[in-house]
Amino acid sequence: MKTWMVSMIAGGALAFAGMAAAQETSSNRVAAKTDWSVFVEDNPTECWAVSSPKETVNTRDGRVVSVRRGDILLFIAFRPGSSVAGEVSFTGGYPFASGSTVTMTISGNSFELFTEGEWAWPASAADDARITTAMKRGAEAKLTARSSRGTVTEDTFSLQGLTAAYEEAGKRCGG
């Protein structure tokens, strides 16, 4: 079981790393839906809705600190070649603390995302579905995490346009 989970984590991290790189360099943005964008890539076919945070707060020992972070992005992906539809992921722009989790809070509901390197995602497709349902109903999502250096980060994402972006990405990838 543990070997399977490590394989899934490694494979997922590679797929998500590709999405982040493609999002940064892709000219394949096919739609903008308020605070969310939709990207499509071919070979293999992938579609995703993605957003950047509206607010970021970094603290260490209870004090707000300035830190350098890479891209901070919240994704929902569709990869028809891998039977993936509506997969949630988050990259915090830094390596997460080993063995830590990210807490995602939407409208008072909390969800746990597991981490590997700079990436976090839910444990199962059922968790993805619960989170995306909450995202479609909510106004914002707060993701709280801890870096490998001990910094606690809280990133707040607007969910305005999420439903339209989700539907657009799903439609383009048959999801």
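The record above closes out task 2.4. Task 2.5 opens with a second protein, given below.
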Amino acid sequence: MSNGELVIQARDVRKVFRVGDVEVHALRGVSLDVRRGEFVSVIGPSGSGKSTFFHILGGLTPPTSGSIHIHGKDLRAMSEADRTELRKKEVGFVFQKYNLLPTLTAADNIAIARHIAGTEDGDDRQFREVLGLLGISGRLGHKPAALSGGEQQRVAIARAIVNRPSILLADEPTGNLDTENSAAVLALLRDLNARLGQTILMITHNPEAAAYGSRTVEMRDGRIV
């Protein structure tokens, strides 16, 4: 385990959804600490609460109860504007669906993230380092339809980390990829963790994918087991 500072501290996080007259308990008291530089795989079957937990950690949805601190900041005490700033600068997201804008080139899809965070004038050397690490420097002029699934996911990862967020949340990042591209993307995440010290939390239902992380946490029925 990394000996770095605590970047995520979740305590007794619960989430209840109401569907008609029925209460659905998606999270039943989840507690987790993640330190800077860790690569944590969160594994569990569909419906175990993994994605709900990630959406809460990323400030996309509030918990019903419990506490979440990101870099010591209380997520529940933040205004919506503060949570939006958190998502711009502190948390990068990679999803199973690449969510690239089809009318824009790969370069412009990445540039949008820099524009939203106000980092267009940032370190271009750092930007080129990320692109080189991901192996997409030669594909930046192409639109998503001209890219393979593996290349599209690499562009999505570049977009997620271009602002050097302290935390990268990857939700089933290889779910739409074949075996070869899955292995390549997982190796890239491990490389980002090792070479850049990127803190990564990755959701997966696949034990082989989970093994790429430095620590595995299993969820089942809304709890960490």
